Protein backbone atom coordinates (compact mmCIF):
# COMPACT_ATOMS: atom_id res chain seq x y z
CA UNK A 1 0.00 0.00 0.00
CA UNK A 2 2.86 2.38 0.76
CA UNK A 3 4.30 2.03 -2.73
CA UNK A 4 0.91 2.80 -4.27
CA UNK A 5 0.59 5.84 -2.05
CA UNK A 6 4.03 7.19 -2.95
CA UNK A 7 3.39 6.60 -6.66
CA UNK A 8 0.74 9.34 -6.58
CA UNK A 9 3.25 11.81 -5.13
CA UNK A 10 6.45 13.27 -6.49
CA UNK A 11 9.39 14.69 -4.57
CA UNK A 12 9.77 18.45 -4.98
CA UNK A 13 12.64 19.77 -2.92
CA UNK A 14 12.21 18.55 0.64
CA UNK A 15 8.56 17.53 0.35
CA UNK A 16 6.30 15.16 -1.55
CA UNK A 17 3.45 16.81 -3.42
CA UNK A 18 0.49 15.11 -5.11
CA UNK A 19 1.06 14.48 -8.81
CA UNK A 20 -1.17 16.74 -10.88
CA UNK A 21 -2.36 18.86 -7.96
CA UNK A 22 -0.25 21.97 -8.61
CA UNK A 23 -1.05 22.19 -12.31
CA UNK A 24 -3.30 25.25 -12.19
CA UNK A 25 -2.32 28.66 -13.49
CA UNK A 26 0.88 30.15 -12.03
CA UNK A 27 1.56 27.06 -9.91
CA UNK A 28 -1.66 27.44 -7.92
CA UNK A 29 -3.37 24.19 -6.98
CA UNK A 30 -5.91 22.91 -9.48
CA UNK A 31 -9.10 21.72 -7.80
CA UNK A 32 -9.85 19.47 -10.82
CA UNK A 33 -13.58 20.12 -10.54
CA UNK A 34 -13.73 19.31 -6.81
CA UNK A 35 -13.21 22.64 -5.02
CA UNK A 36 -14.54 21.60 -1.62
CA UNK A 37 -13.42 19.50 1.32
CA UNK A 38 -15.74 16.55 2.00
CA UNK A 39 -16.41 14.64 5.23
CA UNK A 40 -18.28 11.35 5.51
CA UNK A 41 -19.93 10.54 8.84
CA UNK A 42 -20.91 7.12 10.20
CA UNK A 43 -24.46 5.96 9.54
CA UNK A 44 -25.32 5.41 13.20
CA UNK A 45 -26.31 7.53 16.17
CA UNK A 46 -22.70 8.41 17.06
CA UNK A 47 -22.28 10.48 13.86
CA UNK A 48 -18.50 10.01 14.01
CA UNK A 49 -16.19 11.06 11.19
CA UNK A 50 -15.31 8.05 9.01
CA UNK A 51 -13.43 9.66 6.12
CA UNK A 52 -12.19 13.13 5.19
CA UNK A 53 -11.03 14.32 1.79
CA UNK A 54 -9.45 17.59 0.72
CA UNK A 55 -10.21 19.79 -2.31
CA UNK A 56 -9.02 18.48 -5.64
CA UNK A 57 -9.30 15.26 -7.61
CA UNK A 58 -6.10 13.78 -6.17
CA UNK A 59 -6.98 14.21 -2.50
CA UNK A 60 -10.77 14.01 -2.79
CA UNK A 61 -13.02 11.15 -1.71
CA UNK A 62 -13.53 8.60 -4.47
CA UNK A 63 -12.91 4.90 -5.10
CA UNK A 64 -11.19 3.54 -1.92
CA UNK A 65 -8.46 1.80 -3.92
CA UNK A 66 -7.40 5.15 -5.45
CA UNK A 67 -8.23 7.45 -2.56
CA UNK A 68 -5.70 9.58 -0.63
CA UNK A 69 -7.91 10.57 2.26
CA UNK A 70 -7.86 10.41 6.03
CA UNK A 71 -9.85 7.47 7.34
CA UNK A 72 -10.72 6.94 10.99
CA UNK A 73 -11.42 3.50 12.43
CA UNK A 74 -13.05 3.26 15.85
CA UNK A 75 -12.80 0.34 18.23
CA UNK A 76 -12.95 -0.47 21.89
CA UNK A 77 -10.29 -1.53 24.37
CA UNK A 78 -10.44 -4.75 26.36
CA UNK A 79 -10.19 -4.66 30.14
CA UNK A 80 -6.65 -6.03 29.94
CA UNK A 81 -5.57 -3.24 27.60
CA UNK A 82 -7.04 -0.59 29.91
CA UNK A 83 -5.17 -2.03 32.89
CA UNK A 84 -1.93 -2.13 30.87
CA UNK A 85 -2.31 1.51 29.75
CA UNK A 86 -3.68 3.09 32.94
CA UNK A 87 -2.77 0.62 35.67
CA UNK A 88 -4.89 -0.55 38.58
CA UNK A 89 -5.95 1.77 41.42
The general outline is: elongated
User: Could you name the ranges where pLDDT drops below 50 across 5 or more consecutive residues?
Assistant: 1-6
Helicity, as a percent range? 10-25%
Mean pLDDT: 76
Bin the strand percentage: 15-25%
Q: Strand tally, please?
A: 5
Biggest sheet, spatial arrangement of strands: 3-4-5
Structural class: alpha+beta
Chart the SSEs and their pairings:
Elements (H helix, E strand, L loop, with lengths): L1 H6 L1 E4 L2 E4 L19 E4 L7 E5 L16 E2 L7 H8 L3
Antiparallel strand pairs: 1-2, 3-4, 4-5
Key traits:
89 residues, alpha+beta, three-stranded antiparallel beta sheet, two-stranded antiparallel sheet, 2 helices, 5 strands, disordered N terminus
Structure description:
- This protein is α+β, with helices and mostly antiparallel strands and 89 residues long.
- It is built from two helices and five strands; from the N terminus they run αβββββα.
- It has helices at residues 2-7, 79-86; strands spanning 9-12, 15-18, 38-41, 49-53, 70-71.
- The chain has a three-stranded antiparallel β-sheet with strand order 3-4-5, with no helix packed on it.
Amino acid sequence: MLLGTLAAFQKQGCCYKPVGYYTGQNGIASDQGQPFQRTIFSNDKTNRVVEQGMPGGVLGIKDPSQSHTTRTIYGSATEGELVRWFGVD
